[in-house]
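in:
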């Protein structure tokens, strides 16, 4: 079932996409209920939530720390280094940040499964 959302950031490569969405149907003072960072593996079509830890913005360089790894990006390039692999994944920011159909389908399935689990 579709959920209303807005894509805030989308970074892409041949093998994966990393993105942040804001759910528009949730009213909460807890940012963790509204904002979600997710990792989409294009090979397996699997969507993995990233557990947000911290963020910074220094001179146009955005950084996000997740339990699973570290994301660093500017308006023109980005890298994601997972704690498991340790090898940086080179990413390209996508503007406008519009999710491809296969990513959006996985996103809707993710939230439908999460809703069923509650």
């Amino acid at each position: 079932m579709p959920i209303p959302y807005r894509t805030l950031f989308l970074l892409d490569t041949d093998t994966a996409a990393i993105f942040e969405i804001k759910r528009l149907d949730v009213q909460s003072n807890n940012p963790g209920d509204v904002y979600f960072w997710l990792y989409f593996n294009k090979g397996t079509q699997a969507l993995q939530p990233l557990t947000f830890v911290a963020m910074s913005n220094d001179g146009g360089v955005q950084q996000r720390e997740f339990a699973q790894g570290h994301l660093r990006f500017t308006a023109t390039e980005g890298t994601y280094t997972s704690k498991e692999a340790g090898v940086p994944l080179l990413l390209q920011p996508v503007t406008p940040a519009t999710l491809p159909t296969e990513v959006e389908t996985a996103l809707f399935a993710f939230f439908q499964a999460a809703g069923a689990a509650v």
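note: The longest helix spans residues 101-117.
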